[in-house]
């Protein structure tokens, strides 16, 4: 900055000297900003004012009044009554309020917002009322028409004696990184706030099953949730939903649900119908670096099947635990387009071709898509993932440090099986010790875990386990796939990196 200022100062001084020596008419000088017009970036208007003026009336403020049960921290103390302790020390009911944004999609009062904007913010809380405030300060009581927690979308309805301003969805599939976008909402209860920026990334995931967010650097803050993201033609291509921030404020990383995903869900909710999604009945893991290396496959191309639910479409099609699904209905399974989202968009009852890899060989099966069960039912089928933290190590590394994987194991016997409390017909080796400095230790393997297979081959002794580790190394791979059983849990597949030599 000092260097830049020094140059500017020199130029200004030089210009002044010339002016003094060449002209005595000081009054002829003009202001630096007189007649100045900024050049617009290519493809963007010189000003967004005209577009915003038309769009703003369709963007609304949404507020809810909630009842929240809170436990009195002074309950049971002499201060309990003073600070509002209820009879018998029962939790007290308090009122709370939430604020967000939304936008009208029809003249008769249908509004789109985020589900979390109109949901109770805490366990035991309930929403008493939803109020919609227009830009002209008109207020309407809103009714919740439908919600889809999986994609964080909700549809509201207000009644007005006259037609209301509204906006329409655009096609987010045509959006490109670098395109200009405008966000309108109510951050920090500052109604009608307009921010602009560009699309920073597409198909961005933040951990959800159906994440395909548009990432933007347009300022998104608390209260922007549910508000629209517009393209330069004034069409809604996204619904602002999340931010990534260490401080809770805008740092230039905001996420919007793309219109190509939101529009069909909104249309279904608007009709008062429930959202139905396709389902195969598989428990899956991402094909990360270790897992891909253990299989000799490219990472993030396909997803690994940890388990198959009995009686569902995947089992009936012949899909097995240990398979890698790489394509469904002609669509490749990638990090940007995961298996769950592809299957969810298939028609229930449809017969879809599925390409999978089993023991290094590609094959195609045909599955009939079922209907996705409720979240409670899915939780009953949920299995621990390969990255679960198997803590509470209780072992002596000793002999394990000499083994190829840093694992010392012995064959299963009927007596050991009884001690472990596992099925009597279980085959494999039981771990007696793990070297904590190896990847096996870091992944949480411990004494008492049973290794059923290694490199998709059954193992019944330490020698067989080490032989499979050597076979993997000979093929140029740095990780081996183990099938591990722990008491009280289903068997899972776990990639373990070979120890450094």
UniProtKB/TrEMBL annotation:
Residues annotated as domain PDZ:
265-360, 409-488
Residues holding substrate: 116, 152, 223-225
Q: Where is the composition biased (Polar residues)?
A: 392-401
Q: What InterPro entries does the record tag this protein with?
A: PDZ, PDZ_sf, Pept_S1C_Do, Peptidase_S1_PA, Peptidase_S1C
- Gene3D superfamilies on file: 2.30.42.10, 2.30.42.60, 2.40.10.120
Q: Which stretch is the leader sequence?
A: 1-19
**BP term (GO), one:** proteolysis
Could you list this entry's UniProt keywords, alphabetically sorted. Hydrolase, Periplasm, Protease, Repeat, Serine protease, Signal, Stress response
* Enzyme Commission identifier(s): 3.4.21.107
Q: Where in the cell is it found?
A: Periplasm
Entry annotation: catalytic residues:
116 (charge relay system), 152 (charge relay system), 225 (charge relay system)
Q: Name one Pfam family in it.
A: PDZ_2
- What coarse category fits the chief subcellular location reported for this protein? periplasm
Q: Which SUPFAM superfamilies match?
A: PDZ domain-like (SSF50156), Trypsin-like serine proteases (SSF50494)
* Catalysed reaction, written as an equation: Acts on substrates that are at least partially unfolded. The cleavage site P1 residue is normally between a pair of hydrophobic residues, such as Val-|-Val
Q: Which PANTHER family match?
A: PERIPLASMIC SERINE ENDOPROTEASE DEGP-LIKE-RELATED (PTHR22939:SF130), SERINE PROTEASE FAMILY S1C HTRA-RELATED (PTHR22939)
Q: Which family, according to UniProt?
A: Belongs to the peptidase S1C family.
Specify the protein name: Probable periplasmic serine endoprotease DegP-like
Q: Which organism is it from?
A: Sphingobium cupriresistens LL01
